[in-house]
Specification:
Number of helices: 10
Strand content: 15-25%
Largest sheet: 5 strands, parallel
Number of strands: 10
Number of domains: 1
Distance between the termini: 22 Å
Shape: globular
CATH class: Alpha Beta
CATH superfamily: P-loop containing nucleotide triphosphate hydrolases
Bound molecules: 2'-deoxycytidine-5'-monophosphate
CATH architecture: 3-Layer(aba) Sandwich
């Protein structure tokens, strides 16, 4: 017998195990930009009643702060690291759940910036801020504090390698750049953001390159992570896949 939960179908035994288990684990989901990490992370967190943390949103929030305060030149992406270092302690990021929109939203110094950090200007600049060592140090510390009680799903680039090297379950997600750009394009269209597919494809490829080649915590697959190429998978298939893995780690 199968049952529907949050719009997905699971057998009764799976639902029982997922909901009744007391074992709290850390699930680290890393991978390429727009590979569907956050969608999968949110869905599995909901089913397990775990906290979901979008670590990319933190780097985006710092980037927005840097753009607004002219710490990064958003035309040539030059970062004034001295100025950033001087103002880093003025940056306070937190997350709040918006029950009306049914989503978690990112706050920068008590201002809701959830929509603004998804805009192209932030996307085009975020890789240059997220490669700064002292920014990463501060974000990693914050992320580790959030996971100190386990029962958390966090997605990003270095979660399984740097933030939670002892996470019980590590996933590494990828998909073809064209597939990822198409998904992002549809997402932004839905949010009425005026952007072309080609612009997004270029941004996706650019970010892949910077994320993989930076000196500080480059994007790489943790040796003990499980890889998922979801180019040809729908959401239910991906969820079934991760549910199977979670069951093996909490039993
Ligand atoms: O997941 P995202 O596309 O929203 O992330 C935005 C940027 O932040 C991405 O280009 C790389 C960076 N990032 C990072 O360096 N480390 C993380 N843990 C998460 C994101």
């Amino acid at each position: 017998m199968s049952n529907e939960i949050f719009g997905f179908t699971f057998d009764a035994q799976t639902i029982f195990i997922m909901i009744k288990t007391n074992k709290q684990i850390i699930i680290a989901i890393d991978g390429y930009s727009s590979s569907g990490k956050s969608t999968l992370a949110k869905e599995i967190a909901k089913i397990l009643n775990y906290k979901y943390i979008d670590s990319g949103a933190m780097y985006r929030a710092v980037t927005l702060f840097a753009i607004r305060n002219k710490i990064i030149n958003d035309k040539n992406q030059e970062v004034n690291e001295e100025k950033l270092q001087d103002s880093i302690d003025q940056i306070h990021i937190n997350f709040k759940y918006n029950s009306e929109k049914k989503r978690q939203e990112t706050y920068l110094n008590d201002e809701n910036i959830e929509d603004e950090i998804r805009e192209m200007n932030v996307s085009n600049n975020v890789s240059f801020i997220s490669k700064v060592g002292f920014v990463r140090k501060k974000m990693v510390r914050f992320q580790q504090e959030m996971g100190s009680e386990k029962g958390i799903v966090m997605d990003g680039r270095d979660i399984g390698t740097v933030v939670f090297p002892n996470a019980e379950l590590k996933i590494f997600m990828s998909a073809k750049a064209e597939v990822r750009a198409e998904r992002r394009y549809l997402e932004l269209k839905e949010m009425n953001v005026d952007v072309s597919y080609d612009e997004i494809l270029e941004n996706v490829k650019n970010r892949d390159h910077i994320d993989e080649t930076r000196d500080e915590s480059p994007l790489k697959k943790a040796h003990d992570s499980v890889e998922l190429d979801n180019s040809n998978m729908n959401r239910q298939e991906q969820l079934d896949w991760i549910v199977g893995l979670v069951k093996s780690r909490i039993n």
